[in-house]
Amino acid sequence: MPAGDKVRVYDLARELGLTNKELLALLEKEGFAVKSHSSNIEAEVANIIRDLVIAERQQKNGKPKAPEKSESKESASKKPSSTVFNPLEKPIKPVTPKVEETASAGEASEGPRELHLKTPITVRDLSAGLNVRPNELITRLMGMNVFAAINQVLDEDVVTKVCDLYNVKFVRLRRDRQTTVEEKVEKEEENTAPENRVPRPPVVVFMGHVDHGKTSIQDYIRKTHVTQGESGGITQHIGASVATVGKQTITFLDTPGHEAFTAMRARGANATDIAVLVVAADDGVMPQTIEAINHAKAANVPIIVAMNKMDLPQANPNKVMVGLQQHGILSEDLGGDVAIIPVSAKTGLGIPDLLERILLEAEMLELTADPDANFKGLVIEAQMEQGMGPTASVLVQNGTLRVGDVLLCGKCWGRVKALVDGQGRRIAKALPSTPIRIMGLNAVPEAGDTIVKCENEREAKERAEQAVQAEKDEALGTRQVSLEDFFNQTSQEELPELKLILKTDVRGSLEAIVDSIAKIKSERVKCSVIHSGVGEVTENDVILAAASNAIIVGFHVRTSGSVNKLAKQKGVEIRLYAIIYELLEQVENAMRGKLAPEIKEKYLGRAEIIQIFENSKVGRICGCRVTDGLIRVNAKAKVFRDKELIYHGQIQNLKHFKDDVREMKSGLECGIKLDNFEDFIEHDVIEVYESVSIAPEL
Predict the structure, then answer these.
(1) For the whole model, what pTM was predicted?
(2) How far is it, in rounded angstroms, from Cα 649 to Cα 145?
(3) Is 664 helix (H, G, I), strand (E, B) or coil?
(4) Residues 8-17: b if buried by 16+ CB within 10 A, e if exposed
(5) Which of 461, 449, 459 shows the shortest CA–CA distance to 394?
(6) Does residue 268 carry a pLDDT above 80?
(7) 8 Å CB contact between 224 and 508
(8) Most buried among 62, 150, 593, 621, by the most CB within 10 A?
(9) Rounded distance between C-alpha atoms, residue 340 and residue 321, angstroms
(10) At what angle do helices 156-165 and 123-130 cross, to 10 degrees?
């Protein structure tokens, strides 16, 4: 700042992050008496105060105090020999428990202290951690061309740069969501020794078209494998059943195949080891059969086909074989790797072969678990039951579940009060691949959630509360991805993908649209039809779309009210079309939507500051002459001093004499109020532009 210039007290207070009262006290302490916060002080005095405050803060933050600058005799004579006033003497109370600090006794002289913060980090969090006032931090950020409100989340690189300014080393702590159930499961699995693992029963799900015999086959198994029979017994249970075949057991999931499969896969869980696809020999491959195939493939589990109703005269095995082959299911007899077993749920034909094949697949998968490990399970179903409170039907995946165990399940926790099998009997423990009903949780968990054992109730409660807080923090931290972030991400990961579920009125239209979508070429984004079929959009389509993050596209089909309601609940978009080219055009637009738009600056005009006005209500206003183009309210603005960028913000207000105006053209004079910036001087140049979003090319 040139010699002779003056600075208002309130401007200096705002710059230093002090209240006006604190700065007035500091000035008086240093012998520079002023009347009020609106008084002017000499630039030399302002520099002395700046040096004092910066030195005190550096000393407080562990940085050796910098040598004082040489001062004029006049200014030195004004300074009393008394102790310097410390504007940070009154500590700022941290507003969040997310901040942790570590520093040793000798750290001040050996290096910077460490500041440990958990993401997402807001301006408020960082100011509390650094023990500086939020408005001071906001001013610092503005100097870095970062304009953030007190509750706004900051990028980690910005946090690092700010900490460097205060001689503090930023250390990022893992997010709470990553330190709850998921981290505990990973740690337990890492600690499981291979020699402790033993074979476990397979978990099997039956899938297929309605009325093709999924339930009938399971009913036949139940009736033939009764407790009194030689072959073993079967235990009924909510959501699952266990059949004993000789000396081995098989766990069947009884919940509706598509719903269970997709809901659990949507949460990153895989509840089943093997999928049995039931196809009626008299009916062949139908829409829900195709859905089941796509679900099983998406979950990456082995498929066994049970070709049911072989006892009927109209059974047509060749029709079934051809239909399956058209959808990527090739029989072992034709050189494929899928077993297609003829069965009859009515006569029992082929049922022993089906069970034998299930056990063979399980043997090939080498399914194992460690009964001595800490318990890990998967919630199949959960509900609030009258007289029992929250209950959860759980599939034990590893370890052994016992009465009295303390459990953690997402945001829920509790101690096991009782374990109930399918016959209503209370048992003491449950081994891997066993379905069991649990009582004792404090709330109803989500189907598909992982459930694990904790050391004690305190740990379980704390981790559940952390999960709740992490969910709130994640909502707070939601922000748009910048173009730079997007390209950094896509350079390290696979191409972004648009997933579609396609439903049409007739198969001819279906094939034509699928072929046309396949011809849309792009090197930057992929488009995949993960499921297609003939008929109206169903609830199963919505569930699959929710699990796969897909869009449902319909051609000459309709949706029912219940389907639309479910889609709204799950955040699934359904688009219906009557013209093919419109459908394809919208698919291309959706693919572009997966790419970040290109943002370009469109130059509008330039103005030079020729005079500065002080206004007690609105602050400093720069009087300008528009030298080129035009100046517009709310447009982006850059301020240059000697060709160096000193501000990047926005035109807040524009005046022509006393009138508010929307824009001013070249050759005219006007008053410009910039947003959150008043540190301008005469002859600074203001360049004005607007951001233009350009649709990306495929």
Answers:
(1) 0.48
(2) 8
(3) strand
(4) bbbbbbbbbb
(5) 449
(6) no
(7) no
(8) 621
(9) 9
(10) 30
